[in-house]
Write a structure and sequence with these properties.
heterodimer; A: mainly alpha; two-stranded antiparallel sheet; about 5% strand; globular; B: mainly alpha; two-stranded antiparallel ribbon; about 75% helix
Chain lengths: ~650, ~500
Amino acid sequence: MDFSYTILIPLIPLALFLVLGIFSKKITPAISGWLGSLGLGSSFVLSLYTAYHYFLKGKVNDVYQTFIYKDTWIIFTDKLHIDMGVLIDPISVMMLVVVSTVSFMVHLYSIGYMKGDDGFTRFFAYLSLFSFSMFGLVLATNLFQMYIFWELVGVSSYLLIGYYYTKPSAVAAGKKAFIVTRFADLGFLLGILILSYYTGTFDFDLLTNPEGSIITNGVASSFMGLSVLTWAILLIFIGGAGKSAMFPLHIWLPDAMEGPTPVSALIHAATMVVAGVYLVARMFPLYYFLDNGFALDVVAYVGAFSALFAAIIAVTQTDIKRVLAFSTMSQIGYMMLALGVSKYEGHDGLGFMASMFHLFTHAMFKGLLFLAAGSVIHAVHSNYLKDMGGLRKYMPITNIVFLIAALSIAGFPGFAGFFSKDEILVAAFESNMLLYVIGVFVAGLTAFYMFRLYFGIFWGKETKFEHAPHESPLSMTIPMLFLAFMSIAGGYIHFSEYVTADHQSFEAHLNYPLAAITVGVGLIGIIIAYVLYKKETSIPLKLSNSFGSFYKWTYDKFYIDEIYLFVTKKIIFGLIAAPAAWFDKHIVDASMIGIGNATASLSNRIKGMQSGKFQDYAMSFIGGGVVIAMIIFYIWIN
Amino acid sequence: MDILSLFVIVPVLTVLVLVITKNLKQARLVSLVGMTVQFIMSINLIFAYLKERAISTDIMVFTRDVVWYETFNIHYNIGVDAISVVMIALTSTVVLAGIFISWKIADLPKEFFISLLVLSSGVFGFFISLDLFTMFLFFEIAVIPMYLLIGIWGSGPKENSAMKLTLMLMAASAVLSVGIFGVYFNSDADGGALTFNILEIAQVNIPLAAQNLFFPFLFIGFAVLGALFPFHTWSPSGHASAPTAVSMLHAGVLMKLGGYGVFRVAMYLLPLGALNWSNFFLVLATIGVIYGAFGAIMQKDLKYINAYASVSHLGLVLFALLMINKTAWNGAIIQSLSHGLLTALFFALIGMVYGRTHTREISKLGGLMKVLPFIGAVYVITGLAYLGLPGFSGFVAEMNIFVGAFQHPDMFRRILTVIVVSSIVVTAVYILRMLGKIMMGPINNDEFKNLTKATWYEKTGLILLMIPVVAIGVMPFWLSEMLKESIQPFLERLL
């Protein structure tokens, strides 16, 4: 079987980026929009074909095979070299489908959404750059290739968050996102350096082979009680946690909502932010087998805590995009949790499968939520719940698709999110009760804040609009309808047949008692939201007052941003950078100038001797001669 | 005429023709023609070198040896390996771009171009020399015109800056000359004649005591030019006062003489000294990397930011050289190239911004992207390349250095390596802070709305520098393999 054609999937957006980037002044908006969509459309079709081709025919002896096509990019040492290429296995093919689907939909949607913007072509160029980088990341054959594209998605994200570059808040948000994730990437890079030094390779197929020597002799040497390799993968996980906005590296994600909404849908909901999950899944055997899965436990707890933490914050936010951002963080926490409780073989690998399943369904319904939110924002020109209400009459399609997505994320039976979330909770239930309880509680919170949002936007108070909002154009509604379809149909794909940790299919069934509990908790959340927000009442206000300072803490996101600000402004700038600059000017440079001045003043003192008077010179000459004669005489007599 | 001597002769001939030119138009045309020839020759040299390398196993090719001053056994001895070839290509690219950037220089154009070309002939001579004395001579030829270029065509407290720069570099030369004579007078240790010939000295076993004594002289003498902490303070004020093309050439090429000299002379001729001193200088280089980066965060003037960034990035070159292994050295040389191109780009861009807005203070600039889209875009790309984004040369260099440095398992170097690697975060901070303040955000001065767009010669200069940055970043394989072959004989001396 030959999958080498998959290389075209990233190359098409790259070509688009070059064309749109270089000729951005010459290409008219209409052409660039359709050109971009056409390009991503071809990547989309190719990805679907790859999935069809691979999942139907990629098995040998019931095991999905891994296909690698690569070429050397640079050689570091005798052992270490970076290859560029594509790696085809179940998770990369699944990710191709996710990325190309959402990217294609977002391209189409942006034609309508960004209409009239004077940076239209630039916008599509950035989108293509992002798509290229994300495909490259997904298809990476080795850790270093992944790191390279990891940085490239980071910079695409930076450019797109700061797309409205004349707006200071957007510029600041882009900068924050880049620096926070770069800080996390420092961990990633150090992890790669350690891992490659002790294993002698970057290649995923060597690193993650469960029968290979790296895993079987994993404890190369130990450091503070753990294998150095465990330290390495923990450092790598920091990189993943940074990209995937896990606590405490999540602070950039809410601010990233400064970017245009299609960008939030593509990058900050569906694709780039799940790169951390993908990274852990890609290296799953290492996480699972080294030191009895110590690193994997860390992943599980970080995921569970982030899921809970973000869901609590999401309840109180008033900017609809920020609610969705925290929701994204919470759902990614779920995926991490699922990976963290997973085992490797057969049905025990349920968590792994559930995590990938949820990644897939989440991309569809969260992408849709953002696109629908964008449609609303487009209509009312505001991000805030207070400016919305009763919109169902003006925007019927947006209303329906938003409802579908909300039901899906809330885990309502029959919708995609129900199936994937159920698998996650079953996996958690089978391995760790605490994580299971957190998961169920978060499910309830999710249903509540999502329906708070839904009722607040489309029902609630009847807002009086100066210009009546109207439904978005077809180029925006069609992608939304497609994703709405996927937010239901996506759940009926038998993931356990295709995407598993050990590349072998297993049978997964709904666990009815557990599903009933989850659905029950979700319904309670929806009902509370219904009571509170279906009609405008004063209950929510009273309720938030009764929570007092806890409400305020939550509303202010537990002051994590302020802590970061303190550390950067006061400690790094105030106690390191400023003293360094001062030291340089007043100590290092001053001492150099001091040497210069000392030389000058010394010459000033002795320049009097060069008086130009013959008598002075004669005087010195004779005086000097006498002194020398005396010295010689003294030596001679001794 | 041999292919290498032309690299000195063409600039000298150009200078001679420049003497009879009458105005700016003639002067820049002559310089442009001369340097275009030089540029084409340097591209040709790369291919000629590859061809020659395929059939020759000598360390140096295209060698030529003419006795120059017999009493002291001084020769005009030239030859190149891959490292000098790429440095020559870098120099000719930066000089040519510098001519384009100085297209409209107002005062004394003829004298300006003459000084610039004299300087560059010194640099070219330095890179082809295999004789310590001749090399030192060219080194001085390259350093002296700097004083005139800054003192006459500079801005701000230019006399003071020119003085500081020249005196510090002269002091470094004095230290360096002690080292060179130290090597020279020990070059008969095995019973041969005294010699300045680098390749011959490399065959001699210089006594350990002499190596330990003279290595710091050679190292510091060269490394001052490579902005070694704490001898870097000539660079920020010098660059701030220098005219654009001079800053480009100085930071882009002249500062590379430091790392090149350390590699070619200090470590090659005194390998035992290098091994004994490496930990000490490693600490200084590490401090330089992180200290320069933090220093850059607090600067208010664009050129100062770039100057401190150079301290950090050239500290990385010295750090990599002292790590003594093939990967790190490969990284050091690519970093030299990459930093040379990127810093030249930065200074060119700063010059363009300054020429239009008459300020370099970041607090007074803002939103320039809107009015200067081309300059703004190149500024952002250069910034991203500078902070080590994959796809540009800086990334390739840094990764070679980091992977190379990580091949030493001892705790001491591990800790230094981790400190150095963490500089990538600090770099991102000062670069993005600068980009965000000057290029993005609202336009904070109404006068900026009428700035003139980039002209064709400015664009040519920028694109000329940008092409190799991208080429190295996207396809590093050929460059890296070509360099490694030439690194090997130098590395073997230290193993």
